[in-house]
Structures are given as C-alpha cells and as structure tokens.
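Colleagues,

For the teaching module next term, I've prepared a clean inverse folding example: a structure given as tokens, and then the sequence designed for it. I'd like students to try predicting residues themselves before seeing the answer, so please don't circulate the second half yet.
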C-alpha cells in the first residue's frame, strides 16, 4: 500500500466539498486560521514576559564546522 496519487486526493477533495459545501469549509478555515494566529500571539507574549535571565542557555561547541551541544558539569572534590 503506497501513498495516494494526486487523483485520489482530488476525488477526496470533491467529495468533501459536496458533503460540507464551500461556505462551511471557508468558515472552518477562517476559524482554524484565527486559532493559529491567536496561539502564535500568545506564544510571543509569553516569551516577551520572561526576563532574559530566566531563559536558560545551553553552551555549544564548534567541532569540524558542526555545532554540538555540550553539558557542563562541575567536579566535586572527594
């Protein structure tokens, strides 16, 4: 069972348009777009509210042209 071809998706789209109608699909699309926009705005506000000190940064190291995340551990004396 492979992936569907473009013709399968076109037939599905036509059936969905016949069942729901274009007006209802347009309203659903607008509602979904508004929800995504609201979510993005909320995420921007949440990030703007945090002070710069609160955001932890993880050190990185350049090795052979690639960036590698490293974890810093302090040594304890026995």
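(Answer key — instructors only)
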């Amino acid at each position: 069972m492979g992936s569907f071809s473009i013709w399968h998706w076109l037939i599905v789209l036509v059936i969905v348009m016949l069942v729901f109608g274009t007006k209802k699909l347009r309203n659903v699309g607008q509602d979904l777009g508004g929800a995504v926009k609201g979510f993005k705005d909320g995420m921007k506000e949440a990030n703007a509210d945090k002070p710069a000190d609160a955001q932890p940064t993880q050190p990185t190291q350049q090795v052979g042209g690639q960036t590698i995340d490293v974890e810093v551990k302090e040594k304890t004396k026995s």
